[in-house]
Request: fold
Amino acid sequence: MRAMIALVKREYIEHRGAFVFGPAILLGLMLFASLYSTWSASVHTGIADELPGSLRFYEAAFSIIVAGWWAYLLVMLFFYFADAFSSDSRNNSMLFWKSMPQTDFKIFGSKMAAAFTVFPAAILLAVAISGIIAYLPALSVGAAIPGYAPPGFLDTLGAWANIMTTAIVFFALGLLWYAPFFAWVGLLSVLFRRWAIPLAFLIPVALGLAENLVTRRWSRDGGALLSYLGERMNFRFDGLDFEVVWILGEPWNAPELIGRMVLGLDWISLAGGLAIAVILVWLASEYRRRWVLA
Reply:
């Protein structure tokens, strides 16, 4: 267990630029933009017909920020897996202790563990800070529109807690859902190193085209393989659309939204994807053990 913790710590040290320093810079820019909007607020009064209140404005702004951080996390993890599985192929040392080599499967397991625990936690911390920063433009809107009042502290704190709780569950389920895709990129990084980035897309497309050539049936959806991958890449919950919730300006209710997420998620597909991810990581570790370090 201590070895696994040390390996995860190594991953954090080597990749904190993308998951700690990068978000810190973005937070600084966000804070500057929020302070600027607070000092020079100029909100058209016509917006009052569209905004139910300044608190709803805060929830809408914070939810958009959460979506942005989610996209940032997915992109950074994609590039992380495209490089991390092949970046330390010379030895299996653990941190600075060259006399403590670890198994390839444990090393790759630590990379997966870091990608699903430490790195998302760092981004969620940035999300939490972003929610605090988003209070500044909400104050500006509440003060600039006649008949509006800045959102109260307790109401804003409740909205922040609801959105953060929902975001934590969403991030956890989303990362588990996309685990096989990340493992696929990691396997390709072991086989082809930096070429894993384009091949992660080219191989499925080539297989989809080959399917259409063999079956001689060019479907609008690209065939069974590409249509399945397209559906699998679309992380959604049956009966729940966050865009509709955002557009309608409904108050965020974390227990209700989490319940709808749990009930609307395809758990069988999620479990099957996790099994495929484990197999892909094992294949990558076996290839690395037999060929890369031979």
